[in-house]
Amino acid sequence: MLKSKTGMEDGFLSSVGAGDSTMLEPPTKITALVVDDDTINQMIHHRLLDNLGIRNQVVRNGKEAIDVHCSGKNFDLILMDMEMPVMNGIEATRQLRAMGIRSMIAGVSTNTRERENFMKAGLDDYQEKPLTTSKLVSILHKVHKDG
Amino acid sequence: MLGLGVDRLRADMNRLLALLFHQGVLDEQFLQLQQLQDESSPNFVSEVVNIYFHESEKLLRNLRGLLMDKEFSDYKKIGIHLNQFMGSSSSIGAKRVRNVCVAFRAASEQNNRAGCLRALELLEHEYCYLKNKLHELFHIEQQRVLAAGVRYPMQH
Fold it and tell me: Name one GO biological process term (chain B) (predicted).
């Protein structure tokens, strides 16, 4: 998953663990995919990731997330919305796992009723919207620990 | 003189924001949005909020259209529109609008048409208030930026 160098990991972990919401510069090139049909959330999540120095791409639904992986791209982190047209987050997560994708997938949603089903589909983490810098940092902390 | 203008405008903005927080119109998520704005993206907040206005007005039109239909019975569609409205309102910190959406959704889940109509009126009222106040905030911010630009003219 993550390409890391000895000694640089600890520096990143401690900066993530500090919960500092200012610009972070991770030593490794973390990449992320934002999967959300809502324009406002796309803009906010894209900007949150940008501010943390994380290169990221945005797609509008689960099918586009599958397609982008089929094109050969891979990401360290996937922020997956649940309710989306064409293909929802639960189905997309299931299909990505079936394809052998082992990226960190964090569900981001307002629908707490479907949380259990969403987790069962293959999520590594779940955060309630709206996503904030501190929630994103807590997700990234898990990415590095599992990487 | 110009410096005092910038400071006065900044104080006006802070006062208005404090009022909106005190009234529960906005919550800390709005501050998160402001923190995402910087020199590389100086209009981020107004860009996001303008998209919110555009989408919200479409949702309000759809909700009114559905409920005004004499043969209306599609409460599931009302729920879908409300989920979207709740989500976007939460994302920009529009707390009171979001709370009215929650009450509206409860009425729709009970197939309570009269309750839905009452909730829609309240939602339109809250949205109008929010929009007016945010426009006021952005107007003060624009004036502050202009005043700061006059105070510190570009050196060529």
Answer: phosphorelay signal transduction system
User: Hey, what are B103's tokens?
Assistant: 């009450």
| Closest Cα in chain A, distance from residue B65 (Å) | 22
What's the pLDDT tens digit per position in A79-90?
999 989 999 999
Using DSSP, state whether A139 is helix, strand or coil. helix
For residue B91, give the nearest of A21, A40, A83 by CB distance: A40
Among residues B126, B133, B138, the alpha carbon closest in space to that of B45 is found at B138
What is this model's ipTM?
0.85
Measure A41 CA to nearest chain B CA, in Å. Answer: 7
Dihedral class, residue B117 (left if φ above 0, else alpha if ψ from -120 to 50, else beta): alpha
Instruction: List pLDDT tens digits, range A2-50.
Output: 333 333 333 343 444 444 444 454 545 899 999 999 999 999 999 999 9
DSSP label of A86: S
Mutate to test the interface with B, among A34, A41, A43 (most CBs of B within 10 A): A43
Question: Using CA atoms, how far apart are residues A146 and A103, in angstroms rounded to an integer?
Answer: 10
DSSP H or E stretch at residue A56: strand A55-59
What's the distance, CA B153 to chain centroid?
33
In chain B the domains, ranked by start, together with CATH numbers, are: 2-35+43-152 (1.20.120.160)
